[in-house]
Batch of 2 targets.
Target 1
Amino acid sequence: MNIQISVQKAIETLYAQSVDGSQVQLQKTKKEFKGHLTLVVFPFLKISKKNPEQTAQEIGEYLVKNESVIAEFNVIKGFLNLTISSSYWIDILENINADKNFGTISSTENSPLVMIEYSSPNTNKPLHLGHIRNNLLGYSLAEIMKANGYNVVKTNIVNDRGIHICKSMLAWQKLGNGATPESTGKKGDHLIGDYYVLFDKEYKKELNELQSKGLSKEDAETQSVWMAEAREMLREWEAGDEETVALWKKMNSWVYAGFDETYKRLGVDFDKIYYESETYLIGKEQVLEGLNKGVFYKQEDGSVWADLTSEGLDHKLLLRADGTSVYMTQDIGTAKLRFDDYPINKMIYVVGNEQNYHFQVLSLLLDKLGFEFGKGLTHFSYGMVELPEGKMKSREGTVVDADDLVMEMVSTAKEVSEALGKLDGYSEEEANNVSEIVGLGALKYFILKVDPRKNMTFNPQESIDFNGNTGPFIQYTYARIQSVLRKAAEQGIQLISLDKTLAISEKEENLIQNINAFSSVVKEAAESYSPSLIANYVYELVKEYNQFYHDFSILREENKAIRNMRLILSENTGKVIKTGFGLLGINVPERM
RNA sequence: GGUCGGGUAGCUCAGCUGGAUAGAGCAACAGCCUUCUAAGCUGUGGGUCUUGGGUUCGAAUCCCAACCUGAUCACCA
């Protein structure tokens, strides 16, 4: 079964020297050459003491003679192209066919536990396009880790405290006239977001008025009544003032209901949600403990700092002079709470790349505080999403709202499908269902196929174009496969077992090879935290399947054994597409 | 200025643990539907892989430098 080891053995036998497994590079043979696997023989020239062609020839001859799975070989320069026997491919296909969960490993109680933090919204604004990338990456990463046998806890940290929340509360209190999501018909998060914007508007208006009276910008800011009231509200909140806390709870509950709706539609979820309002005090405790242990130091004004100069970084503030927490303090507290709650082996934070420095520091601080997980934490960093029109800027009102975008994607999917007559004969409900799957598939695939580290441009129109490297194209291929299988079933075609003596075509062998590669792709995706790897693999597979599909008339083939083989090939391609897309959090339609 | 990313076709992106003539899609052009989903398939054109050095049998890939670009740099989260 393991060709890598066969090759290794061949070389050792031929040249009477042991070779390191990593030197045996077997790669997929390029399309233009005959064969399935290619061995690069350059690394072995030293021990063979012969030129590349001769060495390759020798190894090839040995393999064909001694390994039944190697049917033939050819040599081009220093490359030994090996052709694997058809019966081997049929065996492989049979194994894949028998394996219901092909490509995935299930976890046990003893499997390592990975905690993945993602989403991390503020409660004063609705989710936007950047959050979408975050949510999709986080969810997909969790699915990929699960598929590799890890236990996964998906977590969310909600930033529910601070001056920004008070701004929304204040504007609502003063200008809201008791508006609620019910009375306005607005989603809670949007309603609160509106008041946050309103605060900003009123505050700016006030500043302008003060400045027109001759005050400097700084003086105007200190004299602002709006800002003073917001600060006062934060003080009341921290002091536990009943009325303030009640208002805060009420408004937050609206926001959470709004978020839940968005999460549900995006298809993401969490096992455990943490709130900064519950963790910032724990962070403070941890910092004070660190101070006692002498890990941190106090400045004259009473503020607490960490000295990271020996690690090549700077000094970092952990508690302000007035004893209040900063962002870092909260993250320390949250980490402490999480590790108390779960036996975490690995912590992954899905957070934008603007926080690279923050996580570098967090890792060091946790380590200094004696948390063993500190050093090993992973910041899964991703770049910004831009639109073809340019960057999103909240000041210019060019932020793309997550809910609006999803709605637009789904309605575009519907329009396009209708125009193509694809929804003819569908009930309204079925049509909406397919549009939902396709619209979201377009969005998700387009975002996930790009390397997370890169800044990317999301082009809604291109994403929902049903040609090319898009989600809908892959979904369509899946639906077509299901159609083929349905037709076969209608015609009463029974799947018989595979005939191992069957001569199968090169195209079929290549397709099997590609399907078989799925399990190693899943593994690699987990090792390199890379949803995009899965996405690009699935696309390659789909393209290859399409070529195969167009070359053969699958159902009208006379030979039963061949027809059967092709149906099984289709079925397993479908299986891999569905599983692969599942790892990306994308649904596939049974028909479209 | 310091630190960390990114720079591949007109556009959007793969490829990056070194391997053969650098790949897709979009856009452009030319073909393919009496019959299983044409939202498809086939073909053509399009590249100094930012630049310059280095490492070696071999570099888009590794190292160094420069240039361009993004993020970040202590009391925002």
Note: The mean pLDDT of chain A is 90.
Target 2
Amino acid sequence: MAEIEKIEIGMIVGPTASGKTAVSIALARRLNAEIISADSIQIYKGLDIGSAKPTVEEQAGIPHHLLDTIEIDAPKFSVAEYQKMAGECIADVHGRGKFPLVVGGTGLYVNALTYPLAFTAVASDPLLRQELTGLETASPGKLYEMLRALDPNSADRLHPNDIKRIIRALEVVKTTGNTIGEHGGDFSNEAKAEIPYNPQIAGLAMPREMLYARIEERVDAMMRLGLREEAEGIFKSGYSLDLPALQGLGYKQLFQYFRGECTIAQAVEAIKRETRRFAKRQITWFKRDPRIQWFDVTQYEGSEQLAENISIAWGKGSPVK
RNA sequence: GCCUCGGUAGCUCAGUUGGUAGAGCAAGGGACUGAAAAUCCCUGUGUCGGUGGUUCAAGUCCACUCUGAGGCA
């Protein structure tokens, strides 16, 4: 039986501020790799300081893909587009004889590459979404009732208050006549569907206290680097502040300051607090993924040593001298 | 030195006529199928400053004591 040859890829995941950037550079050097970002905010142009996007110097000559790729006001960018673009990047990098190294903290994007999720089946439908939102406003609980009738499995899975996901599930079943579960694989991959990659996933972990201290330091550093000015430029540029891109940490809180709703000190505090909560959600997400091999960064001298151990774990032990 | 008001969760504070404590914020846990840095769900974590006393029973009443703030000398 002719099996399609899978592309071998490496992945580095972990919460924000866990040191993914530095390790990925060290690892890319060892493995002759190019880096493909799995970060839902760094992919936007102009969101640089606040997204902790690696600078040109930090990229250190390693080619990075899917940074600065789309406009802040690009219509309907989503995980489906990401899945497609990342797939093309991986094929391209592999085709040029280099190792694709996916690095990022957006769990859904990581899963879009490592589970056979059939996103492409149903596009989002803004008009239908608007209509459904109107229905829910007029009579709260209505949408969950509808979902219960049309797609009981999804209704079981979702909480009645999780309107966003309820709308998406309704969108799929109303547009196609099939439920969301009938469209493809899921995270548990009970369908045993195949993905075109053979991923090895390394997770970066550290004690919670240490991670929070790093977040604190990093937010202060962002402010020194000019996060306020970056956000102010966007604030004044006329973008709708409801854009998905502008829900990113740092921007949202500074917009409140620009509107006079809080002091700059309160905005910075809020950025730190929300970033901690975000990191916690990322940890929850990655923790349940049994395929991730965890590396406690405190067990290693620095990113070079950590990169060496990851490459050994991936069966690529002998380091490039 | 005297007087007054405080000391209860990580923080700010509630706490009825005595019945071994509860709000907000912070925090912790979880979910996640085309917005995912989004969205949603769950959870009180406590030597009630200390020691004695009264009482069947003390965060609550009494005495002493430590400690903070203010006032008068």
Note: DSSP finds 13 helices and six strands in chain A.
